[in-house]
Task: inverse folding
């Protein structure tokens, strides 16, 4: 771990010979082609048109690798030194996000663009340290090719992803985001914000002890968060419903449930009862309006209707807590 963090045991880029730079370029092009194919495989089921874009990018990287291998064979023979990115201090590394499915289409496109920019800078740096004319020409051509990959990607998009397909893929990605994160998170926020109102404010008015009220709120929030998280993760594995990873949904639901309750429990860390209660009431107001906003923004519920439903429900639960606490 320390060797990776501080670069111990790595070569500096300036110490590489021309043969080693060619070998590094070959392994880098090979890795990038594999990454693009992994992107394509990760996108193929949900975004088949965009998958073709990354298939084309991978083929382009294969052509670059073949050119580099041929140049190495001409200058240094068939034996290529084993040197990779992780062997060179300060050399760019690839984030392993291609291992995570499902892949976000816009994130993948942005990551591919960053990959090409890094590759271009490498070839420019290697070009400055090379004296052989043929090698310099090849590296210069590859630098120009990497710089032009953004236009290649755009061309491949225009050829393989028509406007209708782009709109369809964008809608599918938004729908998946809503099903995996927004919907369970919103359910958790509503449950945590509304269901904990009664026990917290009942405890507050019954005891008028801010510390005891905070403990009630903390236990209710954390308990509800754990319950909601496990329930969301366990009741649907996402394979048939298409709602995505049960772990992600469970985390979204559980965390938002706990936060929803803690929002109006934390003010009771203030020792003055009425100050804490007033602040908690203000927090509840903003929590309920946040729920209405999310419903309007992502679930396309008319804002006034969402606000009326949430505020009315919250007010009823709040009133129940106050009445029980004063009984």
Result:
């Amino acid at each position: 771990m320390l060797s990776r963090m501080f670069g111990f045991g790595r070569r500096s880029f300036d110490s590489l010979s021309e043969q080693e730079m060619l070998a590094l370029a070959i392994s880098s092009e090979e890795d990038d082609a594999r990454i693009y194919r992994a992107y394509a495989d990760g996108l193929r089921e949900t975004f088949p048109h965009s998958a073709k874009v990354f298939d084309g990018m991978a083929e382009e990287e294969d052509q670059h690798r073949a050119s580099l291998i041929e140049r190495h064979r001409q200058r240094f023979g068939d034996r290529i030194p084993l040197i990779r990115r992780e062997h060179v201090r300060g050399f760019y590394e690839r984030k392993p996000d291609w291992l995570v499915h499902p892949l976000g289409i816009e994130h993948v496109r942005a990551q591919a663009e960053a990959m090409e920019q890094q590759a271009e800078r490498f070839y420019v740096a290697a070009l400055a340290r090379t004296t052989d004319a043929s090698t310099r020409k090849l590296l210069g051509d590859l630098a120009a090719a990497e710089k032009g990959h953004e236009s290649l990607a755009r061309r491949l998009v225009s050829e393989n992803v028509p406007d209708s397909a782009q709109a369809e893929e964008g809608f599918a990605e938004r729908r998946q985001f809503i099903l995996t994160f927004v919907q369970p998170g919103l359910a958790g926020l509503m449950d945590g914000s509304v269901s904990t109102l009664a026990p917290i404010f009942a405890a507050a008015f019954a005891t008028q002890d801010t510390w005891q009220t905070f403990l009630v709120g903390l236990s209710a929030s954390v308990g509800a968060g754990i319950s909601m998280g496990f329930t969301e993760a366990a009741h649907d594995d996402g394979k048939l419903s298409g709602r995505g990873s049960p772990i992600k949904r469970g985390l979204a639901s559980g965390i938002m449930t706990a936060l929803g309750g803690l929002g109006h429990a934390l003010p009771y860390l203030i020792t003055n009862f009425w100050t804490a209660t007033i602040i908690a009431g203000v927090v509840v107001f903003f929590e309920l309006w946040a729920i209405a906003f999310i419903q309007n923004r992502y679930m396309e519920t008319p804002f006034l209707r969402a606000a009326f439903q949430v505020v009315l429900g919250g007010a009823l639960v709040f009133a129940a807590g106050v009445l029980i606490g004063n009984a």
